[in-house]
Amino acid sequence: MDRDAPAPSLPDVRASSEHVGGATVLRCMMAPMRSSLRLQLAFFCSIAGFASIGNPLRSEAPSPAESHEAAERVFTVNGIVRQPARDGRIIIAHQDIPGYMPAMTMPFNVADTPDVTELKPGDRVRFQLHVTDDASRADHFERLGRAAEPRPSSALPKPGKRLKAGDTVPGFQLADEEGRPLDGAAYLKGHFTVVSFLFTRCPVPEFCPLTARKLRDVQSALQGDPRVRDRSQILVITIDPEFDTPTVLKAYGESVGADPHFWKFATGNPEQVKTLMGEFGLYAERNNGLLDHTLATAVVGSDGRLLEVWRGNGWKADEVADFVRFRAAPMAEKTGE
Q1: Could you tell me if residue 64 is inside a domain?
Q2: Which residues span the domain enclosing 285?
Q3: What DSSP assignment string belongs to 310-328?
Q4: Rounded to an integer, what distance in angstroms lies between the CA atom of residue 139 and that of residue 145?
Q5: How far is Cα 278 from Cα 293, in angstroms, rounded to an integer?
Q6: Which of 2, 66, 278, 293 supports an S-S bond with 70, CB 3.0-4.6 Å?
Q7: What distance in Å separates the CA atoms of residue 256 and residue 279, rounded to the nearest whole number?
Q8: Same domain, yes or no, for 184 and 305?
C-alpha cells in the first residue's frame, strides 16, 4: 500500500517543482564541473559552512550568545518568475545568492499577499529570502520589469515500473560510503530496512535536509529499542551519483549524524540508480540538464519484500519508526532475541 502525500512542496544547480499525481516533483539542473576535485572541494566547503551558519540537523537550542543572524539569515534575491504562486509557493529562477546557494530555479514559500499573487511568469523580481535551520520563506517582493521570454516548462517523465506492497525488491549492486560493494539482496536480508533517496547538494531546509533530519530521528528511535535495533537499518541512495561519490557521501553522513553501523549511504552506476528509483515509484530523468525527480521513503521487510512507501516528504519519523517496530518486535520475541 502506498501512502501518497504531498511533498512539503545545486556548478549552476537549478531546482523547481511541479505537481504530478499528488506528488511534488523537484527538478534540479546541475551544470558540469571541470574536475572531480573542484566538486569535492565545493562540497566540503558547504559542510564547513554548516559550522558558521548553524547545522540544520542539530537538535539543541542555540545559546544566548548566538546572534539573531545565526538564527535567521536574510538574503536579497533577484530572479525571474517561472510559475505563479499556488498553494503557498512560487517558482523563481534566481541569480546566485552569495553565501548560500548558486543560481537555480526552485519553489519559494510565500504568503498570499498582493505583491505575490499579482506576479506573472516572466516578471523580473527582487525579494527577501529568510532562512532558518528548519524553514525558509520569501517576502517583500518588488517587480522590476519583464524578462525577454519566460522559459516554458518541459514535460515530466513517467516513472518506471513501480513495486507494490508484497513485491520482492529486485537485486541491485551499489557502493557504500566506504567504497565497498553493496549487494542489495544480501544487505536487505534479515533486516527491516528504511530505504530513502536524496542528494547532498540540496541546501533548502524543506527538501533533502528535512529528509535527513527525519531519518536521524528514525535512527534514534530504532536504536533506542532493544527489541528492534539489531533487526533494523537505514539505507539512503543518492539520486545524483555523478557527484555523490563514496567520499562525498561519507562526509555527508558524518554531518547529519548517521551511525555507519546502522545507517548506510550508497551510490553507483547512474542507470542502476535510475532503475531503483523507478522501482520505488520515483521519477528519475534528465531533460536538457534538468534532473527531474520526486521523493519517497519506504520500508522493506526482512524477507526483501516491499512493505510500505511514503510518497513525498510529508511522513513523520515516529510513523516510520512505529511501522518498523510493529513488524520487527514480534519477530524478535519469537526468536528470543
Answers
A1: no
A2: 173-334
A3: EETT---HHHHHHHHHHHH
A4: 18
A5: 10
A6: 66
A7: 26
A8: yes
User: Does this model's pTM top 0.70?
Assistant: no
- What type of residue sits at position 210? L
The residue type found at 41 is L
Structural domain tally of the chain? 2
Helix (H) or strand (E) holding 82, with range, is strand 73-86
What does the angle CA 67 – CA 68 – CA 71 come to, to the nearest 5 degrees? Answer: 100
**pLDDT tens digits, one per residue of 85-109:** 998 989 888 888 888 876 777 789 9
Among the ranges given (156-160, 254-258, 322-326), the one the predictor scored with the smallest mean pLDDT: 156-160
Q: Among 233, 303, 298, which residue's Cα sits nearest to residue 264?
A: 233
Q: Residue 56 corresponds to which cell in the numbers above?
A: 540544520
Q: Are 194 and 212 in contact (CB under 8 A)?
A: no
Buried b (16+ CB within 10 A) or exposed e, 172-189: bebbbbeeeebebeebbe
User: What size, in residues, is the chain?
Assistant: 337
Element (DSSP H or E) covering residue 194: strand 192-198
